Amino acid sequence: EKGTYPHYMLKEIDEQPLVMRKIIQNYQDGEGALEIDSDIVKAMKDADRIYIIAAGTSYHAGLVGKQFIEKLAKIPVEVHISSEFGYNMPLLSEKPLFIFISQSGETADSRQVLVQVKEMGYKALTITNVPGSTLSREADYTLLLHAGPEIAVASTKAYTAQLAVLAILAEVTARGIGHEVDFDLVQELGIVATAMEALCDDKEEFESIAREYLTVTRNAFFIGRGIDFYVGLEGALKLKEISYIQAEGFAGGELKHGTIALIEEGTPVIALATQEFVNLSIRGNVKEVVARGANPCIISMSGLETDEDRFVIPEVHSLLTPLISVIPLQLISYYAALHRDCDVDKPRNLAKSVTVE
Ligand code: F6R
What we know:
The chain is of the alpha/beta class and 357 residues long. It has helices spanning 8-14, 16-26, 38-46, 56-73, 82-85, 108-119, 134-138, 157-177, 185-200, 203-214, 227-243, 279-290, 321-339; strands at residues 49-54, 77-81, 96-102, 123-128, 141-144, 219-224, 246-251, 268-273, 295-301, 311-313.
């Protein structure tokens, strides 16, 4: 039930800190260390390459998950859109492991790939919010998101839950292989939960950003580099699906190769700047669009901020920033949709789970 909330989406955004804490609890052993079923860790260790298959928001979580797994466990990862993979399968490695990410566990495009790779004799792990869902039953292994039912069509808490579970999977696999992990993920996810709370308490700020940048515009761009780019893709999808504003996420450096032609006087450009090693270069990209008239909204992280930033998120571990930086984007999309009189929880043309090809 949505209780006192006007929309499920807002309730589900607010639930994210709690979901983080539930995930930490559910994946801890008696001593407080993170733990994953040993068969899953073995399947990860045995793989020479991991193929993540997903659609929509879950695909965007997969892109960040690739960074987690490659940086911590040092296993190469490819991320594929399920509807493309089935018809256009890449050359596979010798010992692939397939990871399906699906909130509902029912997405037909993803299931089709699962059936194919099972027929080929490969192992599959499903990361889902729904125990007993089709993708969970048909895979060899399942990891649950523990996010509680997600009712709003626009996925919010499932995305951050997917990121947290992928981070845990990467960390436990890394330790299983014997790679040193130089931070305490339990502690860092706790810091993430606290930062999420602070952002959820700042709704007025995001409402005012939505009012200022998105009330009348036809389009909007999200830019970032590295994992900020992937979060930008998710921010653009959120905005498109519930506010019907044409929105696109771009890699900061790619703009000048064509997309910058779309920048006009007043075009909103939301830039994420949470990564120290690309802080200067993304700010350079913001200057490029401002010179063409864009209305920039820089969202940076504490420690990396400058006077020109519109919002500064609390500092969290540099790998985990997507768990935090997405929350302003979820809330900005929510308020933009509200201001434009859109049906936030049930946008036109969309269904919560897409069970047709
Ligand atoms: C976006 C959204 C969709 C889903 C996609 C995959 O907010 O909800 O893009 O992420 O349809 O759904 P699942 O994760 O259930 O496979």
